[in-house]
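Here we describe the complex-level prediction in full. Unlike the single-chain runs in Section 2.1, the two entities below were treated as one system.
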Amino acid sequence: MLRYLALKIGRALFVVWAAFTLTFVLLFVLPADPVDLLFDPAEVNSVPPEVRAQVAASYGFDRPVILQYLTRLGHALTGDFGTSVQSGRPVVATILDVLPSTLLLAAGALALALVIAFVIALAATSARRPWVRDLVEALPSGAVSVPVFLSGILMLQIFSFRLGWFPAFGDEGARSLVLPLITLAIPVSGPIAQLLVRSFATEFRSGYVTTSWAKGATRGGIVVRDVFRNASLPALTIAGITFGNLIAGSVITETVFARQGVGRMTQAAINTLDVPLVQGTVVLVAVGFALINLIVDLIYPLLDPRLRAALATG
Amino acid sequence: MTDPHADRQDPLLRITGLVIDYRTGRRRWTPAVRGATLHVGPGEFVSLVGESGSGKTTLVQGALGLLPESARIRAGSIAYSGVDVTGWNDRRMALVRGNYVGFIPQDPNTSLNPVKKIGQQVIEAVRFNEPDARDAARHRQAALDSMRTAGLTDAERVFHQYPHELSGGMKQRALIAIALAGKPKIIVADEPTSALDVTVQKVILDHLVRLREELGIGVLLVTHDLGVALDRSDRILVMRDGEIVEEGPVRRVLENAADDYTRRLLDAAPARHAGRLEPASGRRPLPGREVLRARGLTKTYRLRGRGPRRELRALDGVDLVVREGTTHAIVGESGAGKSTLASILAGFTSPDHGTVHLGDRELTGLSRGRLREIRRDLQFVFQNPFTSLDPRFTVAEIVAEPLRAFGLARGRRERTARVTELLKAVALDERHLHRLPGQLSGGQRQRVAIARALALNPKILVLDEAVSALDVSVQAQILRLLVDLQAEYGLSYVFVTHDLGVVRLIADDVSVMKDGVVVETGPVEHVFRSPRHDYTRRLLEAIPGAGLAVAGAR
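The structure predicted for the assembly as a whole is:
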């Protein structure tokens, strides 16, 4: 068990380190000079070299790459990702400002996506008429296929502009959260629902379900008592994909609904080549990714006694 | 047919003229059960015998209301104690299932919920069939009682275990406990022991008989094994192509089967034959010199994990000699190490200690390239013809593959000629050349696998449970084919099997394995007539169909 834990935690740390290093290399080899971006584009060429050098020095852009890397890594370990080139504020503080808003959106969307996915899977499993089941099973692929910006704009059109039920942008109050939540939840729910529909169907045909029928169980009872837990296990395995979808979706959702958040901040940071801020967010996402997978690895043995037994002896 | 029960009490289960169709197209239905009629009375042990595709499982599913969605009952009726339940929906059938009819499924390894403790699964079966849903303490007690009745003497401990912690036999007992928990009047068992070892099979079946006697419940046993049916039932029914072709008391069927098919089944049963099969033409080759010799083979698998190193000794100092033109059978139950032995003999696995000699050449410790050369003389036939053939290759491609790989029979024409010749040798013909494995029956597939193994003119075939997945009548054909091929080409076989009945038909020598050790070895007649080791004796006693042998000798 201890070895299992150590292995998983070690892997999580490696992922975060790799993300840091990779972003450093990628951002360093980006063709644009970050110093240029600190000045007004119209005046860039007229800036005296000594001013440029001074600015570069103050940001540490003038030192050898390996030194820059080591210094940044050292600082990162103490939670210091430098200052944003654009705003001049510490990267960590900038991220922390917008993080709660995104966390709220992502967590809410994930919860909603799970509800949607399970409802679809349960409906498909319980449906007795083949055409109803076919229809329900087609929903997830539809959900994945509709791009977030399209569904977001459609919802804005209908529910904000036409009906005026929800505000079109901003992030004040619960009402402003409704449309972004739905917009983000739909594509995230797709892959989960597809997986669940499949595993529910597979599990429903398995031997122990026949045993339960023979015991005298009813259809609903079988779905709840036998199928649910066995079928839900595989959904955990795509937690990583789900997290990725949430991040990617939140970038677009926050842009469409003009919400504050990590997604929109990342987009802005990339557009302005705000190297420290981009790196900070990437590492943050990597931390989130590693954490999610770590949690999944820890939950799995709790849900599956077979794995638990394997760990106890191993 | 006059029914002896008609004017007395209604039988526990009566199926009358049942027709069940499977949907095979938009509006196309293919019958799987065509007008089956049967009944099971209180305290009666009835066996339903049939080969795969006979419709026996569909019939049972129909009786329990567990048909898949693609099936429908077109005609006939199912009645429990005179109550017609045909066409009842799931909700109403749930009152009958468990409560009135208990079901023991085929494969204990997949029939228990892997994430729930055994006790909980048995308790559920108690609770579904009790009027008082809240008395948890009594449910628990009832579940434990049921587990003890099912032969789980250590019920308290098993109660808190998960399925993966139990052996196959224990799982099947847990499933029997579940079937008994609803206090049913009749138990339907669908091949309850097919996935179990023969000694475990005997214990489970004996237990079913005891339950019948002690609790007075009726038993309907579905099986493909005529021997199993004959040993224990009061009456047997033989099913073929969806119809019940034979029905009667065991003694009558055994001595005077009314139907042709039943007689053929009886003949195909290995237990019917007292001695080795003789080739159709020619004579059996005289045993020659040693062609394969294994000395002191030892193989240990290291189990992963911390703490004291745990090891599994799969083989422990195994010796084996195969003489030219003979069959050496290796028998044992699961975990005995017979597959490990087979794969070492074939060069797939290397032993920790010991040597294997093929003629004068030593096999062990050879490089891949040298081993490859030796493979021309030593070929392997796998257990499952459904997975050992590439589903995308045609029969011609499958059989030609070894020729191609070793650069033999160059040129298309020559290769096709050789493939056709090989197919003829295994009693297939040109019509099969361009079929895919999916279009062949199990027996035909195994023939293709044998043809492929013969392509390089080997001296030895290692056959790992090569007939175990086949129906008895098909199994009999394949065994006959192997005997004929042996006579024709002077082949030697290493024949790995769990079925002692088959050994008698095909083998000259036999080695009995248990826990990685050969406990007894010698000529087949010797070992069968006067087994020296306890375990051999137990194995021999567990062979189903003792009655068959008697009738066959008559």
